[in-house]
Design goal:
heterodimer; A: 237 residues; alpha/beta; Beta Polymerase, domain 2; two-stranded parallel ribbon; 7 helices; 6 strands; extended; B: 362 residues; alpha+beta; Cytochrome-c3 Hydrogenase, chain B; 3-stranded antiparallel sheet; 8 strands; 47% helix; globular
Chain lengths: 237, 362
């Protein structure tokens, strides 16, 4: 019995046609072409299959103005996917054997799959934040593990260095250092005597919750109770 | 030979339940070329994956098509499970295949009824759809739905089939098999059916291979490709499985292959019902697919191989979900099969190809 396997590989745009030709010569079936709208352009995924192996080739970041060669001279059946990608993603594909010239789908909006929805944008931002937090965590762990080698020059060392400069340059450096120190002081928030945000009163919160739909209100109440419980536990400790 | 004329066929046509348009280039009464066009009912369902999380999208996936609903929910779930490295319990795999094969039986019976109606064989149409009702009744008893079943979820299935229901499924299928065999034999030996289908819409094995064709359309041209033969899930536990093929490559061969596949599906269901393992029907799936993770999958739908692709972005919403349906793959083959046929045979050829435009447009 033939077993099923899948692989993903990167391939450059310039080799798309060559890849199709070599696959055809080796007796691979054409399976499909798909497009993914990413921040770095349109990714195209070409899939071929032979003996249960589904090989997917990713062409990353096709830009506006790039021309993708059609593979319909080798695999005629690809005309459906190529016309679809042209209409839905506005990717320029040259020499499609059956080319509908942008009329394959009757669309209300041009290239609808390239419109980034608010949900997708939020997901991307979240992914970026998670990646940044992960990187920061890793960097902090690395810094902690490493001995304090790069502590930087002391105040005395800096002053000694400045004293060695010509007077005009030394004055400029001192002025820049003072401005930097002033800016840093302004950026550091003063510890508030009281919480900056006093928040809503219990009555105001209940009134707001009452205006929500019952399902959401129940969720908000549960969250508030959990928060209160956590705060009480914190105090107890 | 006279001057070539273009005759538009569809998107509204008595033999087409769905909107497919063909520009038929005709000389005298012979079709010399054909250009297919779809795009009348594109719904943009794949885009909805951005606003629904991966659990919610399964309900959209199964609404892609009323006939292949079970297959789409299964194909989608398998792809997300592959993306997230989820292993489904054995019992859930069996249950999924049983419902999926029942779907194949109902799809092929529906198609057979429509084809018989196009032959002018209206009593056959009624018998086929009467039998199909029994399968829909089984769906209703086991899932609560007749068309949209909503039983598959990422990680397994949401309902079990108990021993009593399983015995009922087997009993109904035994009864159905007897009646269906009589109908099938009538159809396959009928002179008027043979007159309309034998030697019509020929597609060679070489063309089927070169055009990467899938499903019964390809198997009728002796291309023995069936995703079920990879033996994934419960298919791997079958004592034997061989794709049903025919060498003739004409409309009659396509009718025959589909007719025999109904019997094959019934046998698969009965074997799996007898071997049904005990255990859980689902596992809990938590978390979200990793940013940039990708997975692809193929599934044998009633019309052939369907390709699924998913890419994660670190959130519960997928970055991309894609389905390439069997009809989309077979459109090129359809143009080849239509070349050289009589204009009067076009409807028969298209019916025996059984295009599903609803799936193709998504």
């Amino acid at each position: 019995m033939t077993t099923f396997e899948q692989t993903f590989e990167e391939t450059p745009l310039a080799q798309v046609h060559e890849l199709a030709a070599s696959r055809l010569a080796d007796g691979w079936r054409y399976v499909q072409i798909l497009a993914v709208n990413t921040e770095n352009g349109i990714d195209l995924v070409y899939s071929y299959m032979k003996d249960g192996l589904l090989a997917n080739f990713n062409v990353a970041g096709v830009q506006k103005g790039d021309t993708v060669p059609s593979i319909t001279d080798l695999y005629l059946e690809a005309f459906v996917c190529e016309n679809e990608i042209h209409d839905l993603f506005d990717v320029d594909i040259s020499n499609i054997a059956i080319d509908f010239g942008g009329m394959f789908y009757q669309l209300a909006e041009k290239a609808p799959m390239t419109v980034v929805s608010p949900e997708q944008l939020a997901a991307r931002e979240k992914a970026k934040k998670i990646a940044a937090a992960k990187a920061a965590k890793e960097a902090a762990a690395k810094a902690e593990a490493a001995p304090a080698l790069a502590t930087g020059p002391t105040e005395e060392e800096i002053q000694a260095k400045i004293a060695g400069l010509d007077p005009e340059k030394a004055a400029k450096v001192r002025a820049a250092m003072e401005a930097k120190a002033k800016k840093a002081a302004a950026a550091t928030p003063a510890a508030p005597a009281e919480p900056a945000k006093t928040g809503l009163t219990e009555e105001e919160i209940q009134a707001k919750v009452a205006c929500l739909d019952p399902e959401k209100a129940a969720k908000v109440r549960a969250a508030l109770e959990a928060k209160a419980k956590k705060a009480a536990e914190g105090k107890g400790e | 030979m006279s001057k070539a004329t273009i005759i538009p066929f569809g998107p509204q046509h008595p033999v087409l339940p769905e909107p497919l348009h063909l520009d038929l280039v005709v000389q005298d009464e012979t079709v010399v070329d054909c250009i297919p066009q779809i795009g009348f009912v594109h719904r943009g369902l794949e885009k909805l994956v951005e606003t629904r999380d991966y659990n919610q999208f399964i309900y959209i996936a199964e609404r892609i098509c009323g006939i292949c609903a079970m297959g789409h929910s299964l194909g989608y779930a398998e792809t997300v499970e592959s993306l997230m490295g989820v292993e489904v319990p054995k019992r859930a795999e069996y249950l999924r295949v049983i419902w999926h094969e029942l779907s194949r039986v109902h799809s092929h019976l529906l198609w057979l009824g429509l084809a018989a109606d196009a032959f002018g064989f209206e009593s056959m149409f009624m018998h086929c759809w009467r039998l199909r009702e029994r399968v829909l009744d089984l769906f209703e008893k086991t899932t609560g739905g007749r068309v949209i079943l909503s039983v598959v979820k990422v990680g397994g299935v949401v309902r079990d089939i108990d021993a009593t229901q399983m015995a009922e499924i087997v009993s109904v299928l035994d009864g159905l098999k007897d009646e269906y065999t009589q109908i099938m034999n009538t159809l396959l030996t009928d002179t008027s059916v043979k007159n309309r289908t034998v030697g019509v819409g020929y597609l060679s094995a070489e063309d089927a291979t070169a055009l990467s064709m899938v499903g019964p359309f390809a198997r009728a041209s002796n291309l023995a490709y069936d995703v079920r033969s990879f033996g994934r899930g419960a298919y791997g536990d079958l004592s034997e499985f061989a794709p049903i093929t025919d060498t003739a490559g004409d409309c009659f061969a396509r009718v025959k292959v589909r007719c025999l596949e109904v019997l094959q599906s019934i046998e698969i269901i009965k074997e799996l019902a007898a071997k049904m393992p005990a255990g859980d029907i689902a596992v809990d799936v938590k978390g979200a697919p990793a940013d940039g993770a990708q997975a692809s999958n193929v599934l044998e739908q009633p019309r052939g191989e369907c390709y699924y692709y998913a890419r994660g972005n670190g959130s519960k919403n997928l970055e991309r979900m894609r389905m390439r349906t069997p009809t989309s793959q077979n459109l090129a083959g359809m143009t080849v099969a239509l070349k050289g046929c009589d204009l009067a045979d076009v409807n028969m050829i298209i019916l025996t190809i059984d295009p599903c435009i609803s799936c193709t447009e998504r």
